[in-house]
Design goal:
The protein is built from nine helices and five strands. The chain is an alpha/beta fold.
């Protein structure tokens, strides 16, 4: 059975970018012994590169378990920042019997809340639609000040739930790393370099194919 790594965010720590790197480089991941399987196709039109939709849509539980258990790699990575908000999904049936390690990126709470509230306020107004807040607040566009209050309460609740569950998981199986923009930029540059290499290889393949056809 593979080792399971669950990357759960937190919010505003470059999760979408990391997921894009995982999605774009399956061959590199496999060479490093890591599978990044999709039970449901990625929602690239959003864009979303997370591979954990099966945690929230339970119609494919059996398929998810089989896909993870039969992964052709010693390690399986599941990435979804919403797990941090709905921490009970760490106990999904697809994970039964697997050794789990939880990977969590963190940044100062003030930075998280400011970025989260700014993203969800005018004109986007995303946060009120997804959080459990009174209906009148959902029905209107909220300014950043109101969303800071909402985000602060929600973040505190999620942190508290995670801290309680961390004792159940086992602190040795929780990997916490600081979010560092410089590291993300280096990863972005490496991702771009890998894409150029793949493009060059594809061009070489096409040129060789044309050459063989001419000789024949």
């Amino acid at each position: 059975m593979p080792q399971l790594f669950l990357h759960i965010g937190t919010v505003k720590t470059g999760t979408t970018f990391l997921q894009k790197v995982f999605h774009d480089n399956p061959a590199v991941m496999r060479r490093h012994g890591v599978a990044y399987p999709y039970v449901f196709p990625p929602e690239l039109h959003l864009p979303r590169y997370a591979n954990a939709k099966f945690l929230f849509d339970r119609s494919r539980d059996s398929e998810a378990r089989e896909l993870i258990a039969s992964a052709e790699a010693p390690n399986v990575l599941i990435s979804e920042e919403n797990i941090f908000q709905y921490i009970e999904h760490l106990n999904h049936p697809a994970f039964e019997g697997l050794q789990k390690k939880v990977v969590l990126y963190v940044r100062p709470a003030a930075e998280v809340l400011a970025a989260w509230a700014a993203e969800a306020s005018q004109p986007y107004n995303v946060l009120p639609a997804i959080l459990d807040i009174p209906h009148p607040m959902r029905s209107r566009i909220l300014p950043v000040d109101d969303l800071l209050d909402i985000a602060s309460l929600e973040y505190a609740v999620h942190v508290g739930r995670f801290m309680n569950l961390m004792d159940e998981i086992g602190r040795d199986d929780v990997i916490i790393r600081p979010f560092e923009r410089a590291s993300m930029r280096e990863l972005e540059e490496e991702n771009a370099r890998l894409k150029r290499i793949v493009a060059d290889l594809a061009l070489d393949r096409d040129m060789l194919s044309d050459l063989i056809k001419r000789k024949l």
